[in-house]
Amino acid sequence: MTHPAVLDAAAALSSFMDLKKGRLSASNTQHRRKLSDLYGVFSDEEARAHKAAEDDETVYESFLTEPTDQPRARALCYSTTVVYPGRVGDEFYMTRGHRHARQDSPEVCLTVRGRGMVLLQTDDFRIQALALEPGTVVYVPGVTSHRIVNTGDELLAVFSVYPLMAGRNYRAVESHGFRRIVVATPEGPDLVPNPKFRSAKGE
């Protein structure tokens, strides 16, 4: 491969991130999730349905850049996730949460705007909440479900890098839920038990 070809390849894989909006200029896959798309995600389903009927606003968006001409086994892809400010009842807006389909795949996340939390939950339901603010870097190990929560009053934008082979497994979260949820209190965001959480034994 000649030097100009290397430069051409690098240019083809480059992108620009709008730091105010959290969007990638070269994303080839985009997802938008509104309140109506998130049945069963929030602990108060009645409040979610009522709010969706009144104003079906966007809860979060994701912008993915996946190389199409790279060997899948060795390729990395990157994305931004933008979670908008808002609440369903006392529970902050958040992503559905997922685990990687290829379970051993890790992920690295960099917060570029806003404030929030990332919830990490292992297969034996140990959970950890890490604070997010601009400049925070979080390493998400393999075999770990993760969810981004916006606890601020502006959009939360998080940039992530992970193996192209990682994929997404939403059923791992849907079948049990996260053990804790993040809610607003007079003292600030708080991590409380999720009333809809179900353990492996159905408890």
Feature tags:
203 residues; mainly beta; Jelly Rolls; six-stranded antiparallel beta sheet; 3 helices; 15 strands
Summarize the structure.
The protein has 203 residues and is mainly β.
Describe the structure.
It is a single chain. This protein has a single domain, classed as Sandwich (Jelly Rolls), CATH 2.60.120.10. 12% of the residues lie in helices and 40% in strands. The protein has three helices and 15 strands. Strands 3-4-5-13-8-11 form a six-stranded antiparallel β-sheet, with no helix packed on it. A three-stranded antiparallel β-sheet has the order 10-9-12, with no helix packed on it. It is globular and about 45 Å long.
